[in-house]
């Protein structure tokens, strides 16, 4: 594995890899989606965990995909193992489902279903026997104002329950990692999951319903104009557009393997789903971009943390939420980040993920701790470089005792209490 060059996958490329590992796409489709990758390459996530090896054979021109380590998951309904299953498993389960042997009726839920689309889904499912509700979701954050993956999956599962009850069908719900890359259409991907006939529900949206959905952003402004004379309406709308809540920096610190990145990513997804503009600054990803070229000596670590703090403060200064998850082993560096956030007028929440070193070592997916103890990695935090435990953290969470969903909710509740304060103005 170590003799091959590596390629760090983007969120969109991770979606394609997940489809290929689940047999929804051939390995050649993954290779086509990575035109700049070497012919023999180890594919990693942003944390440099080796996920798979992709090899193009020159003899028979075939492409081989070898899984190496499990892909990282997060929390939220889109990560529920009951619905996020490999295509091969969903397809196999549907082989014995009632029907005419032509595959399940596939219902593609690409937008939150309207009442009209729920009625259409029930009608399409009537007499189908087996129905497959497919929910394409991407790892990347949604566009501002759009319903994200958690909300779309919740709405789709509610639709599935209604179809099962009203149409008397056997309904299976499947989340499909979908970035639009990989060369396959949604219909072709649905077929790989076991669907026969495929219907995209949004395509059944009537012009009147489509117009109503498109008009939603204008509803408040029109209501204001109906209530106030023009001059007053202008002032009310101006005040609404100018007022915003204070931004916030949520800064996780802890040893490698403590769970801080997992909690941070899940928190960012929850906040996005709440409609808050959230930027995730994870330590490994920052190292590949903002801090590329820096080493791991003390000075380089401090510069890395300072850069993260500076960007986080800029995000928060303009009312956004920055969630950062570096190791940040030194008290001085963390204090500097706090000062930057507070100088920007933002809330600052320091979360110490205090998971014990022994637990972190046991979780190590990348083998860093073993290499550090063998002397192969110099200045590794917790082994050959110190970690200065914070005494000023707003929250302390040990993920060996606290499940990730509970940890996320603890941080989210604390943050929401801060954000519920009066709005700031610029």
From TrEMBL:
Q: What is this protein called?
A: Adenylyl-sulfate kinase
A Pfam family the protein falls into: APS_kinase
Q: Which UniProt keywords apply?
A: ATP-binding, Kinase, Nucleotide-binding, Nucleotidyltransferase, Phosphoprotein, Transferase
Gene3D superfamilies xrefs: P-loop containing nucleotide triphosphate hydrolases
**Residues binding ATP:** 254-261
Q: Which reaction does it catalyse?
A: adenosine 5'-phosphosulfate + ATP = 3'-phosphoadenylyl sulfate + ADP + H(+)
The family database entries (SMART domains) matched by this protein are listed as:
AAA (SM00382)
Signal peptide start-end: none
Q: In which pathway does it act?
A: Sulfur metabolism; hydrogen sulfide biosynthesis; sulfite from sulfate: step 2/3
This entry's Enzyme Commission designation comes to: 2.7.1.25
Positions of the AAA+ ATPase domain: 246-421
Membrane-crossing residue ranges in chain numbering: none
Q: What organism does the UniProt record list as the source?
A: Promicromonospora iranensis
Family indicated by similarity = Belongs to the APS kinase family.
Instruction: Please give the InterPro entries that the UniProt record associates with this protein.
Output: AAA+_ATPase, APS, APS_kinase_dom, P-loop_NTPase, Sulf_AdTrans/APS_kinase
Q: Does the keyword Nucleotide-binding apply?
A: yes
């Amino acid at each position: 594995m170590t003799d091959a060059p590596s390629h760090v996958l983007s969120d969109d490329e991770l979606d394609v890899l997940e489809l290929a590992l689940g047999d929804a796409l051939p390995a050649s489709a993954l290779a086509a989606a990575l035109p700049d990758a070497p012919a023999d390459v180890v594919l990693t996530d942003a944390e440099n965990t080796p996920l798979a090896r992709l090899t193009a054979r020159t003899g028979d021109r075939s492409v081989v995909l070898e899984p190496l380590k499990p892909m990282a998951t997060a929390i939220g309904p889109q990560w529920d193992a009951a619905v996020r299953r490999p295509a091969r498993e969903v397809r196999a389960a549907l082989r014995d489902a009632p029907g005419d042997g032509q595959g399940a009726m596939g219902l593609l839920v690409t937008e939150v279903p309207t009442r009209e689309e729920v009625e259409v889904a029930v009608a399409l499912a009537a007499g189908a026997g087996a129905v497959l509700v497919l929910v394409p979701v991407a790892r990347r954050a949604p566009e501002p104002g759009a319903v994200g993956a958690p909300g779309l999956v919740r709405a789709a599962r509610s639709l599935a329950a209604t179809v099962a009850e009203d149409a008397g069908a056997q309904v299976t719900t499947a989340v499909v990692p979908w970035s639009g890359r990989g060369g396959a259409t949604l219909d072709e991907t649905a077929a790989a999951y076991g669907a026969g006939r495929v219907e995209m529900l949004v395509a059944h949206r009537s012009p009147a319903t489509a117009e109503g959905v498109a008009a939603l952003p204008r509803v408040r402004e029109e209501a204001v104009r109906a209530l106030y004379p023009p001059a007053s309406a202008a002032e009310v709308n101006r005040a609404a557009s100018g007022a915003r809540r204070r931004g916030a920096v949520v800064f996780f610190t802890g040893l490698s393997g403590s769970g801080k990145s997992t909690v941070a990513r899940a928190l960012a997804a929850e906040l996005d789903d709440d409609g808050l503009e959230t930027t995730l600054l994870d330590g490994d990803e920052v190292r590949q971009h903002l801090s590329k070229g820096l080493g791991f000596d003390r000075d380089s670590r401090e510069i890395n943390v300072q850069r993260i703090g500076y960007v986080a403060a800029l995000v928060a200064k303009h009312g956004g939420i920055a969630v950062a998850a570096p190791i940040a082993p030194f008290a001085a560096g963390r204090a500097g980040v706090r000062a930057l956030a507070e100088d920007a007028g933002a809330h600052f929440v320091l979360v110490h993920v205090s998971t014990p070193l022994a637990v972190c070592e046991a979780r190590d997916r990348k083998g860093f701790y073993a290499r550090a103890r063998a002397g192969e990695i110099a200045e590794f935090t917790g082994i050959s470089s110190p970690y200065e435990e914070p005494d000023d953290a707003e929250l302390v969470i040990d993920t060996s005792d606290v499940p990730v969903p509970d940890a996320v909710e603890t941080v989210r509740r604390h943050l929401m209490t801060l954000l519920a304060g009066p709005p700031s103005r610029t």
